[in-house]
Specification:
The chain is mostly helical and 267 residues long. Helices cover 48% and strands 11% of the residues. The chain has seven helices and eight strands. It has a two-stranded antiparallel ribbon with strand order 1-2. Strands 3-8 form a two-stranded parallel ribbon. Helix 1 packs antiparallel against helix 7. The chain starts with a helix and ends with a helix.
Length: 267
């Protein structure tokens, strides 16, 4: 039989073990919170972007959906609408761009400057206008098709607008030996255009899968928030395996060290 003295010592050991397990769980949750904040509560590190997303009193025209939580300021939203060019980029590099196509290009620009939801897809990119960029953001097929319908009869001379142009002090120019042709001829399909026009920044997905939108009702919930949250959860689930093992390993070393000192005193 276990006497009262032994029971007391056993109780103390069990209590100490429980405290140790709680410490491991708290450490794991803390690591996950840090990862989550870094993925979801940040902005692209670019020339005009804020460090963290936040509300704006109002955002100009096509950037307005992001006013409740934006990575752009009111001034930037207005300037990108009213400026002659943005980053010296000329959309009419072959011929005057149609109004409907220009509207979609500006909507894409609002997404780039204002969206707070691209954190899970950011990768380093050393350029004068930014230090990172998003790649492979899931893009709703219906959005892509609408963009394609607006621009397929407009003209361009390079497939990848992120890397294909010749740049001068005045802006982007068609490279030598390039030929101006319609979007329809250059890309062949809506999917190809949406994925290649900006260096694989988007990956077209069916609308019934998690995917981003360039336009939504700014008076309601931003549907892109849920898409980013799902991707962040996926990244954390995959990455915390190794990180957690490392953290737990260090915690256990501390626990074993303390136990070698404390447990004898408890007994």
């Amino acid at each position: 039989m276990i006497n009262s003295s032994s029971q007391g010592r056993l109780y103390k050991v069990v209590l100490f073990s429980s405290i140790c397990l709680c410490a491991i769980q708290l450490a794991t949750c803390h690591i996950a919170d840090i990862y989550l904040d870094n993925l979801l509560n940040r902005c692209l590190d670019g020339r005009h972007h804020k460090t963290k997303p936040g509300p704006e009193a109002d955002l100009f025209k096509q950037c307005s959906p992001w006013k409740d939580r934006a990575c752009c300021t009111e001034k930037i939203a207005k300037d990108l609408h009213l400026g002659e060019t943005w980053y010296r980029f000329n959309y009419s590099h072959c011929a005057p761009m149609s109004e409907q196509c220009e509207k979609f290009q500006r909507q894409d620009l609002c997404f780039y400057e204002c969206s707070p939801n691209v954190g899970p897809w950011l990768i380093p990119q050393a350029k004068t206008i930014r230090k990172e960029y998003f790649v492979g953001v899931p893009f709703c097929a219906s959005e892509c098709n609408a963009w394609w319908d607006a621009c397929k009869d407009d003209y361009t001379c390079v497939e990848d607008w992120g890397s294909g142009f010749k740049w001068t002090k005045s802006g982007n120019q068609c490279p030598e030996n390039s030929t101006c042709q319609t979007f329809k001829k250059m890309y062949g399909s809506a999917k190809n255009m949406c994925e290649k026009i900006w260096s694989d920044s988007f990956q077209v997905k069916p609308d019934n899968e998690p995917c981003m939108r360039l336009w939504f009702d700014g008076n309601g919930t931003n549907p892109n928030e849920k898409v980013a949250q799902l991707k962040a959860a996926e990244i954390i689930s995959a990455s915390l395996g190794g990180t957690t093992r490392f953290a737990v390993h260090n915690i256990l070393i501390v626990i074993f060290t303390l136990s070698s000192l404390i447990v004898p005193m408890l007994l």
